[in-house]
Amino acid sequence: MPTRPYLFYALTNSVCSTCLNKLEAKIIFRDDKVYLIKHCLIHGREEVLIADDVEYYKKCNAFIKPADMPLKFNTPIKYGCPYDCGLCPDHEQHSCLTLIEVTDQCNLACPICYADSGAENQAGHAPRKHRSLVQIAEMMDAIVANEGSPQVVQISGGEPTVHPEFFEILDLAKERPIQHLMINTNGVRLAKDREFCKRLAEHMPGIEVYLQFDSFEAAALKELRGADLREMRSRALQNLNEFKISTNLVVTVKKGLNDSEIGKILDHALAQDCVRGVTFQPIQAAGRLEDFEAGRDRYTLTEVRRSILEQSDYFSPEDILPVPCHPDCLAMAYALKVKGKVIPLTSLISPEAYVETVPNSILYEQSEGLKQKIFDLFSTKHSPASATTSLKQLLCCLPLLPTPTGITYENVFRITIVQFLDAYNFDVRSVKRSCIHIVHPDGRIIPFDTFNMFYREGSAGHHLVTNCSDGEAHYV
Ligand code: SF4
Ligand code: SF4
User: Fold this and answer.
1) Residue 186: its pLDDT value, please?
2) Are residues 356 and 269 part of one domain?
3) 463: CB partners within 8 A, 6+ apart
């Protein structure tokens, strides 16, 4: 009797990448790769690579833990996921990180911009606007209403540093119980305006710059960002180092373009005093994405993880683990950098202890209560067993304060891989666990993945819902 040339692993729901209609989808394993198979009645069969490492993909299930709920939900369950964002009561994770887009304007015009940002007045485009402080305050309040004390809020855009009231926006955030504030920036203003950096440094600690840093190659930068930004990035880092502003480098990774630079970027990041970590984001097929071919250019989380392991020797496979709040889309490794050396931390505890200890958060060092444990770990002698115990606790809370041994937040180094879902790899089972959200101007809190597909003004959204129980056609 013939046998299927693959293993049928699970059933889920996805969408057709052409018409965005919801479809049943199979998850299969073939040749140690994971594929999503879907059939659209109109647009036919689609097969999408979603991981190139079956064991890691399966391991993600072992990292699931009960979700933390937001304090409130914002929309009813009406049409079914993903048409009820949000957050609707069917969502299975709170907001670990929420973005606020404070402007549509940008001083770049990247060909890959998911927000379709650019100059204020661009021929053939409606004028791009800054949001008012009143509106931004309302959006922050919407996040606080959902989260109480939001773990991470990211000021984003467009390019937030072009907003004429940028520092007033930071003040609005400081007035609210936001634990950690990130500024998502392309670095152009930081490179050109030293005084701006000086003023930004006055807001330390509690802020972190999330700095675009994709490549060392002019050609790759031109393809991703429309400009050779090498000098700009270098000057931005120089200023951030000078003013000791915590920085996280963000690398948008496109297969065959800059994926071979991952190791070099890690080396560079570790050489910068201000850099606390690097986030790798495979390109999301959303928004303005010129010259993108899904079959050729899509890149998965496990491929990025493999590249990190192949191109650098800082981490072992046991160090880069799924993050419990959204395991199949987030992976992370934590380390300490001390006198030029990297000490990986994640692998030092068992996976069971990791799941048990690590909060539903993408920034573990935000947790209070265990800072003292680092004293024990680094200032006293330990047997391997007691060191492991301390590390279990340490992982939950790396120190923001100086310790007797001189280990501070400046010694923290984390790498994160963030895989966003798009119309190709969309998986309803997964999107319900999404914890990176964006606040809509009307106060809805929407997963970043579905926002770019359905809810962003001008997106392919406004989508026909055909399976509504009242039998009528609805558009969301
Ligand atoms: S993604 Fe979450 S918020 Fe959106 S419809 Fe699905 S369950 Fe609801
Ligand atoms: S991707 Fe960022 S830097 Fe580039 S145009 Fe969009 S908002 Fe500006």
Assistant:
1) 95
2) no
3) 20, 21, 83, 454, 475, 476
User: Is pLDDT of 5 > 70?
Assistant: yes
> Based on the domain organization, do 249 and 380 belong to the same domain?
no
In a mutational test of the pocket of ligand 2, which residue from 114, 116, 117, 120 has the highest number of ligand atoms less than 8 Å from its CB? 117
* pLDDT tens digits for range 274-303: 999 999 999 877 665 666 667 667 789 999
126, 274: one domain: yes
Q: Give pTM, 2 decimals.
A: 0.87
Which has the higher per-residue pLDDT, 90 or 368? Answer: 90
CATH of the domain at 192: 3.20.20.70
Q: Is residue 38 part of a domain?
A: no
**Ligand 2 binding pocket includes 110 (Cβ within 6 Å):** yes
Nearest bound ligand to the CA of residue 185: 2
Omega of the bond prior to 256 within 30 degrees of 0, cis? no
Q: Whose CA is nearest to atom 4 of ligand 1?
A: 85
What are the residue ranges of helices labelled H in 4-67? Answer: 54-59
Q: How many domains does the chain have?
A: 2
Q: Grade residue 406 by pLDDT with cuts at 50, 70 and 90.
A: low
In this predicted model, what pLDDT tens digit does every residue of 131-140 receive, in sequence order? Answer: 999 999 999 9
Which residue range(s) make up the domain with 113? Answer: 97-292
The closest-lying atom of ligand 2 relative to the alpha carbon of residue 118 is: 5
Same domain as 199, residue 130:
yes
Closest by alpha carbon to 432, among 13, 9, 10? 13
**Closest ligand 1 atom, CA of 85?**
4
Nearest ligand to the CA atom of 184 = 2
Share of the chain above pLDDT 90, in %: 62
End-to-end CA gap in the chain: 47
Strands 207-212 and 247-253: parallel
